[in-house]
């Protein structure tokens, strides 16, 4: 008897770390939005929505959904470009430098590690 099912995929450790950090960021965004409810309902909506999106992305990374790989690539590319623009325009801050380094590291990891691409089957 031939087993035609695909072997279960292993989640690379780096993807696990990115998913956990994304989930933590999502929870913090939601909490920040909840605290903003006392100030302005309209101002609270944006971080709450972004937090929910971050949690969905974290779940997608955790469960190795191919769309989560590509959404992460796009978001990290935006973060990288934003960080570079901040650095080039003279807005050098620790946050801009850290944002740029993390975005670059995540992008390199996602594309350089064959196990990541295989896990997401992209």
TrEMBL record:
The keyword Membrane applies. InterPro entries: DUF2127 (IPR021125). Pfam families: DUF2127. Keywords: Membrane, Transmembrane, Transmembrane helix. The chain crosses the membrane at residues 12-36, 42-62, 69-88, 94-112. This is Integral membrane protein. It comes from Dictyobacter aurantiacus.
